[in-house]
Amino acid sequence: MVGRLGTAPHDAPLGGERHVVELVEAEISAQGLAVGERLPTERELVARSGQNRTTVRRALERLEAAGRIVRHVGRGTFVASPPAGDGRELPPVDATSPAEIMEARLVLEPLLVSLAAKAATSADVTEIKRCASGGDRAESHDDFEVWDAAFHRAIAAATHNTLLARSYDMINAARQEQPLWGTLKRRSYSTARRDEYRHDHREIAALLAERDARGCADAMRTHLRRVRDHLLDDD
Length: 235
Prior knowledge:
By secondary structure, the protein is mostly helical. It has two domains: about 15-80, Arc Repressor Mutant, subunit A (Orthogonal Bundle); about 100-235, GntR ligand-binding domain-like (Four Helix Bundle (Hemerythrin (Met), subunit A)). The protein contains ten helices and two strands. The chain starts with 15 loop residues before the first helix and ends with a helix.
């Protein structure tokens, strides 16, 4: 059952998206919501947070990309992962280099997508395609990054292997905490490269839908090598 989400104070010092994210996180924690329990609707979050619908939607996209929530069209928004049972955070990862992150992704993600090609449900395939389409519509670097993260996280979830999905989450946490990552991503960004990534995502999603495990793995490997080269080899 959805708990009572507090109304945001008018003088909240947080940016709009960050405020909504923290409001949702507080709701999950305060109400002790478990995996699969329903969260407030976008309309309720708009009313209670004092933010507009676009800001609320972007905040939910970030939570979804982080694997914290899952949204189903026509059904609502639900908790996707439980709070840590022992209260401990992941170990610090800020010392991990961008090169190490890409090396780890190249080892793990081709395996994830090949497994997802075999294990994904029709709902999983729909979600992966939705994330690829979201990236196609993204107009800014930041918007594309949200959908890019959501696309790769949806593939990890589609393996239905909790341990492997958590391994992906650890790599993703390292990426988010790495102080140079955002700088390198922005420096290497161009609309032409974004279009290459969009094409890669569409190809991976199509091969996954066809249950082509080997093709998926090869396409993911090509995609990540492209990302690595753009990220690390720019002058």
